[in-house]
Design a protein that fits this description.
The structure is a homodimer of 227-residue chains.
Chain A lengths: L11 H17 L6 H8 L3 H8 L2 H27 L10 H18 L6 H11 L3 H25 L5 H20 L1 H7 L9 H17 L13
Helix pairs in contact in A: 1-2, 1-4, 1-6, 3-4, 4-5, 4-7, 5-10, 6-8, 8-10
The first copy, chain A, binds a DNA duplex (30 and 30 nucleotides) through α3.
Chain lengths: 227, 227
DNA sequence: GTTCATATTTAACGAACGTTAGATATACGA
DNA sequence: TCGTATATCTAACGTTCGTTAAATATGAAC
């Protein structure tokens, strides 16, 4: 195709394909995105995609792993840092929430100038009901989720487990929504709210979540279940 | 196709197509859903879809209008009912939130036995970045959104406008997430939380939102902007 | 019974899809 | 210099896509 591409034993082709795929997956969705469009954007021919990734599914997995792998690592490091060491006071609720949210916002912010590709990609992952994608994501977040839930539970011992689970989902649900529908939020609020404005969103959201988390359990919620 | 279909001047064909389309849009998304699959499920031939709806886009619009039209009507009626009449006390914050949320949950609950089709459809609408769909939805919710925002603002006069807007988005974001990812939430919580369990979700969520809404504005939020 | 708008059919168009076969170019080790 | 593994190409396979043309069946009006 491009004659200079022949000289590229430099290993950049694979990255170029991943970047192109990521962009197209993000704004078209996994299923309607065509590998032909991806190849075109990456300036390679079709079989190169199969050479590197085997199939469209393999390409999807590679795209997800490249972005969400580092995010998980960051979350795991934050969890390790927040483990209450004997003798030192446990972390504040705000600190825990910031550790949950900030890496996601940073990820979203980092690619803002590339058109918020990663943010939309998150939305695609969440909204796509394909079992392969849902299973991957479920497995991907399992440990991090468990870790943050335990940290929160230690802070809110009086809260029934079910209520904490509900509220944990409320938090991630709102965050996912903010990130995946950024342009929509901007339009609806006439530009007042922009989820990419991390400096504003983070304190706003943390404050809101702390209030929600520390609210008393609603009437009728079962008390702490017996172990 | 089916010879008995010829006797169907009964006007049920159109409804059958809409129902089939709704199901397939819900679990495949608008773009990857094929009108051939829709026609197959509705047991009609392809051109019938074009006879009734003109194009795939027209079919999408009709499907959305059939479900979301009544929802908007219900919201508008609730808003009219909640308009503070002179002499009577203004509605409680819980009442407003219930009026916002309950119609959505009822819609979701009503079709639970059909496999939560409408819930997934909501998710599709929210996640789909196609301008045609986003524009439709934006226009669709404009008035209702404005109405509820005003009701809430009257209850929280000390809250800067921007903070209220953020929190309003947090509420709808979490709710949309709950509904669109029902099976995922169920799996993640080992069945403890089921967004379809309206009787539990509604009080849990209202309590959480009231706490979040009434939290003080975070430090650094601009005070009430001058008019 | 003829007319005519409504409703539905079969058949096909061109385009795009995911994937693969087979050939060719490149760069390094012998 | 000659293989040989790596990397990339052109070309094509069969399938599905959204859409349309043209014909036919239906049921009510006259």
């Amino acid at each position: 195709m491009n004659p200079r591409a022949h000289t590229a034993r430099d290993g950049r082709t694979r990255e170029r394909i991943l970047t192109a795929a990521e962009q197209i997956f993000a704004d078209r969705g996994f299923e309607p995105a065509s590998i032909r469009a991806i190849a075109r954007r990456a300036r390679v021919s079709l079989p190169v995609l199969y050479y590197y990734f085997g199939s469209k599914t393999g390409l999807i997995r590679a795209v997800l792993e490249r972005r969400f792998g580092p995010l998980r690592t960051e979350h795991q490091q934050a969890l390790a840092r927040l483990q209450p060491s004997p003798g030192s006071p446990p972390p504040e609720l705000e600190t825990i929430l910031e550790a949950m949210i900030r890496p996601v916002l940073r990820l979203a912010e980092a690619d803002a100038r590339q058109g918020s590709v990663v943010m939309h990609l998150i939305g695609r992952v969440i909204a796509d009901p394909t079992p392969a994608i849902q299973d991957w994501f479920q497995e991907h977040i399992r440990n991090v989720r468990q870790g943050f839930l335990e940290l929160l539970a230690r802070h809110l011992p009086q809260l029934p487990r079910a209520v904490l689970l509900w509220r944990y989902e409320f938090i991630w649900g709102a965050l996912a929504f903010m990130l995946c529908n950024r342009s929509w939020v901007v339009r609806k609020t006439d530009g007042v709210c922009d989820p990419l404005d991390t400096g504003t969103l983070l304190p706003q959201f943390v404050q809101y979540c702390v209030a929600g988390l520390t609210a008393p359990a609603p009437r009728g919620s079962r008390a702490r279940p017996r172990p």
